[in-house]
Amino acid sequence: MGRQRQRKVCWYDRKVREGEYDHVGYLSGYPARRISTLSGGLLGFGRIAKNVARYMNAFGAKVYTFEPFLPESVFEEHHVIRAKTKDEIFETCDIIILNIPLMESSFHIIDADAISKIKDGVIIINMGRGPLVDETALIDGLKSGKIRAAALDVFEKEPLPANSPLMEMRNVILTTHVAFQTEESYEELQRKAVECAIQGARGEMPAGTVNRDTRK
């Protein structure tokens, strides 16, 4: 596991299609790193983030998370380091992954100020909601090299405008809000929606309720 690296699969796929065979990585724009040498920072530590932490731990990465609302035992159980502040994530981690809902407090959590604090060469992955990231600041960070690369499944405006500079950047992976998409996930989504509706009709608390103290 310690030999696993950032594989830059999308980059090499494009190069093969363009007729460039770069088997030693000189054309890739930035060096590959072993995941076991990196630290990952998770903003938010819900169900999805816990699974991300499990995968990162399997590859030997050191995992931090900023989540002020959970007891210490949760972080110990999942073998992650609890960051005291968001800035600790920004200043410490090589990869920053967003797994938080969009709220007033999380709007543009990655902005110019945050980017000024991050480590040089950071990778940013947004699997949450588009407006968590200030795309103008992100683009500036990518152009300057402060941000090594980004992977975005969501955008401030969806679909992503055709004239967005992100479209032309070779160190950015863009997907269409489909990070969750599998045949099984659609089946589970439909099943859980029906189950919750039935539970609500019976006067029961739906299984997916987050705030169980709220009853209407």
Proportion of strand residues: 5-15%
Based on the structure, what is the oligomeric state of the protein chains? single chain
Query: What is the CA-atom radius of gyration, in angstroms?
Result: 19 Å
**Global mean pLDDT:** 89
Task: Bin the helical content.
Answer: 25-40%
What is the overall shape? Answer: globular
Number of helices: 7
Q: How many strands, what sense, and barrel or not for the largest sheet?
A: 7 strands, parallel
Q: In terms of structural class, how would the helical and strand content be classed?
A: alpha/beta
Describe this structure in words.
The chain has helices at 9-17, 47-58, 72-77, 86-92, 112-117, 135-144, 183-201; strands at residues 39-43, 62-66, 81-82, 95-98, 122-126, 147-152, 172-174. It is an alpha/beta fold. Helices cover 32% and strands 14% of the residues. It starts with 8 loop residues before the first helix and ends in a 15-residue tail after the last helix.
Concise overview:
Helix content is 32%, strand content 14%. By secondary structure, the chain is α/β, with parallel strands linked by helices.
Question: What keywords describe this structure?
Answer:
single chain; 216 residues; alpha/beta; seven-stranded parallel sheet; 7 helices
